[in-house]
Structures are given as structure tokens and as C-alpha cells.
UniProtKB/TrEMBL annotation:
Transmembrane segments: none annotated. Binds 1 zinc ion per subunit. Coiled coil: none annotated. One of its GO terms (biological process) is S-methylmethionine cycle. Keywords: Metal-binding, Methyltransferase, Transferase, Zinc. Residues 14-319 form the Hcy-binding domain. PROSITE patterns: HCY. It comes from Actinomyces slackii. It holds the Pfam family S-methyl_trans. The gene is mmuM. Its cofactor is Zn(2+). Zn(2+) binds at C239, C304, C305. This is Homocysteine S-methyltransferase.
Amino acid sequence: MAIPAAPASQCARPGDLAAALRGGPIVLDGAMGTELEARGVNTAQALWSALALIEDPQAVAAVHDSYLRAGASIITTNSYQATLPALIDARLGEDAAREVIASSARIALGVAGRFEQEFPSRQVIVAGSLGPYGAYLADGSEYSGAYSLGAPGFEAVHLPRIEALVGAGIRVFAVETQPRLDEAQWIVEQIRGIAPGAQCWASFQVGDDGERLAEGTPIAEAGAWAQETEGVIAVGINCVAPQAVLPALRILRAATSKPLVAYPNSGDAYHPDTKTWTAAGSAERFTARAQAWLEAGARLIGGCCRTTPADTAVLAAAVLR
């Protein structure tokens, strides 16, 4: 399998997150999986959104482009669920699996480069998405952190993905949806070893009160770690209920002077008995709280599960006004 790279003239620069943040708040993109579903891509399987890297890379590119046109300045690679063990389980050889992971970077960088050519005043940063080990397990433990760093396959999930993304040109990383502080610390250490000088943000899973990470560590400890760690440019939360964001930001603000990150879920309500969703109204949707997050110190603001380019446009109007 070969996924062609974009011409060099159409690839964005790796990006400097710290420099961009000195210019003010930045809008992140939103959900990938549900946007792929809306384009007819099958995500109801073990590889989830990563299957599109193999079967429909054009759809991945279209999602990236839609978020940029809605006002995002940072897009994240479709690599959250793209891990070497999962791709090998899907009957790819190791070389082909690494190629798939690298393609998530090439696709995003290509979209960013073409967008910058069309809109020269807009600089785009591409961040490599690094989800937790629990996402590979696909058993809900990405929301609990109920595993250890010594778990079988832990390094095999993380290291090849970092290597593939770095090899494809990524120098900014989203260490995201992290339920455990020790895992985020381990990932950042690996990034620093593989790509010295790379930058990242770390964002965590928290309970609805915003006070503790999913596995129980006080979020203040995550803020203190970020404050002292070179290469961690910003710290915050993602893939959480909108009501958890403000309490978490307030605790983090007391623990660190670094920029804060907030990209929660949409606010839609899930009904497990019927396996259906009720869309949040405008007052309940996460975008209604963006101004309060800015006032609390958030400088990277976007959306996670079930958010859309339409939400990104609302955020951009609030953040960039």
C-alpha cells in the first residue's frame, strides 16, 4: 500500500506552537470520527477513524480542510487510534503499518500547505495526535487509566507512532485524552528523546468536577509538572463534559503560568438504553462557555467528540473577535 505524499511545495512548515501562542488565543479543530461518519466512512470497527487512512484518505483530508475553513489554526493528525499493534492486528505488515501512521501526518501537512497557499495570511500548525494506551485497548480504560506503564504492548503502541510522525515531519504533538499523569510524562520524555526541540501540549481526562485526572491524580499535579517540563508548551483538558472545563482551568491556572488548553466534548446527551444521542441546544453546547474559558486562561480552544466545523466557526468568532 502506498499513499502518495503531497508535493513539498504544498506541505506546511512544522510550526512553532510557542511563537503562535504569543500572538494570542488559537482555535483548534474538532472531532474526526463523527465527521468521517458524516462522509460515509465506516468507523464501527476496531481501527475506528484510522481505517480511513487506508480506505479513504481523501475523506480525512476533507475533514482537515473543513476545520481550517471554519477558522481553526491547528489541525491534529488522524493518528489517535493509529497504532502499530492495532494495524498489524488488521493484517498489515509492520512496514505498511508504519506507512499508514506516517500518512496521517502527510495528509494533514499537505492540507495545511495547500490552505496556506490559498490564504497566505493564515499560518497553520499540524499537531501529531498521541492518544493513551487505553485507546488502543478499546475497553474504556482511556477514561479510567486502569492499566500500568508496564502493560504488555505499552511501548509498542507509543514509540512507533512517535517515530513515524517525526519521520513524516511532525514537530508539534498533542499528548491528549490522557487519564494518567505518569503516562503523559513518559510520552513527553520519549518525544524529547526522539525529536529534540519538539513542542507539545498535554491534555487530560478529568471527572465532572474537574479536580482529578481519571485515575485519581489531582489535576494540580499535572499543572505543576507542565510548569517545570521543557517542551510542554501548554496544558489542559480534553474529551470531557463541558461543565468540567472551568473548574479544571481554575485549578491549573493556580499551578502553572503556561497557556491552558480546553477542547471538551460537544455537550450532546447519550442514551445508553437506546444507543442514541440528543443534540445539545445552543445554550447547552460547549461553545456557549468559550468566553469564560478564555477569561480563565485557556489559549488553545477547540472541540472533541461530536463537535463539528460549525462549532469551530462559533469558537473562532468568539476567540478571534
